[in-house]
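User: I'm new to structure prediction. If I give you an amino acid sequence, what do you actually give back? Let's try with this one:
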Amino acid sequence: MTQRSGLVCVECGASVPELVRDYGKGNLRLAICSVCNAVADKYVEYERILLFLEVLLLKPQVYRHVLCNLPVPVSSRTTLKLFVILVMLDMNVKAYLVDRDAGVTFRSESMYKTPDTLQSATSGVRIGQFSLHLVCLALVENIIYFLSIFAIIWLDPFRRGWREKLSNGESGNNEVATRYASAISMCISSFGKLFALLTVIWEFHWSFIHGIGALVVVSNVLALQLLLGEGDPERAKSLHVVAVVVFGLVMRGAAQLVLYAMGNSVLFHVLV
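Assistant: Good question. You get back a string of structure tokens that encode the predicted 3D arrangement of the chain. For your 272 residues, that looks like this:
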């Protein structure tokens, strides 16, 4: 099998020369990690749907596989597509809260509070306006959240050597680590927002959204901790990484408040 640099054992995080060993005559075996004596990466045999389910279950091993051991590194185009999907999922959450009139604060002159007669007369136009408005809000908030986290990682105020780790590819595959690793880890670890689609099928109390937000935050911390080499997340969460994610949440909340102060017609009481 062709060897590739940057491969890691998904169990312990140690570097490994290969994931699959070829003994000849079509006899292929999963490689064993020399450090922990476990299978280096069991996920090379998994279908993508199973990988996705493991991601939702917050398995650190699958995050190591996705960030470091994928046969074909995630491209910038794929990363952008993932981000667009996240924005649309966020828009769905906002539409749900507006429809339930829960977890939101409206201005008295908000376009969401027009008289019923006017809404029925211009329903098609209004729906288009509402959708575009919510998409724009979701886009702005997610951009600020992501950029705030990327900025803190790059500035490295805690002197953890994060910039050097990413630049040198110490956290995984060189090509991915130096270009898109932070964005990939944030996008993949935010897909807990898919659970918000359950609100289309069943009725939930609006506080259900807070549970989804907590899941996304924990996933973000897990992915960034693995990416930045801040220890084993199964044993303890890195307070430095937690601080980075909290900063992103604060900046996202501040963006909502600024937009509301500038005349935005609705303020949402959820951050993620």
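You can read the tokens as a compact description of the fold. Here is one thing that stands out. The longest strand covers residues 20-22.
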